[in-house]
Amino acid sequence: MIKKMTMCAVLFCLTALTAGAQKFALVDMEYVLKNIPAYERANEQLNQISKRWQGEVEALAVEAQTLYKNYQSEAVFLSEEQKTKKEEEIVAKEKEAAELKRKYFAPDGELYKKRESLMAPIQDEIYNAVKEIADAKGYALIIDRASETSIIFASPRADISNEVLSKLGYGE
After folding, report:
1. Which helix (H) or strand (E) is 54 found in, with range?
2. Which residues contact 104 (CB under 8 A, 6 or more apart)?
3. Domain count, the chain
4. How does pLDDT run across 104-135, given as a tens digit for each residue?
5. Can you tell me the distance from the alpha carbon of 100 to that of 14, in angstroms, rounded to the nearest whole number?
6. Is residue 123 part of a domain?
7. Domain presence at residue 144
């Protein structure tokens, strides 16, 4: 029993000493991204594309609604064959709107692909800058301060966000 406790204490001390020897840093990705003009331009471009595509989807939905309203007002005057034809036309227009929405906005849709093509080069550039700083300064771990909600306090000395911006050519 005492031998096990001694062994556990030794392992604990070794782990603590090893962990204490490692260096850590923080980077605020929101701050970094806000200070990169290419990121802001890419975001604006994505917003414009999204609005345009949303307009296309909404236009088809309005067409489907108009077809339905016209159908409702004309239904009493239509034969069964005409009703069926109008109903199929409405369903086809609704389906077209849904397919266009999926094409543009689905998780693997055009907006996602466009975001990837615009953002990936910027993210890669940031990653490479962070990696170079980590290698040069011997950091074992760099945490994104913006996305890590469990950080209650961190010394400003641990934040390398401005250093990352400088490495990217956007620093002071």
Report:
1. helix 37-74
2. 53, 54, 56, 57, 110, 111
3. 1
4. 999 999 999 999 999 999 999 999 999 999 99
5. 59
6. yes
7. yes
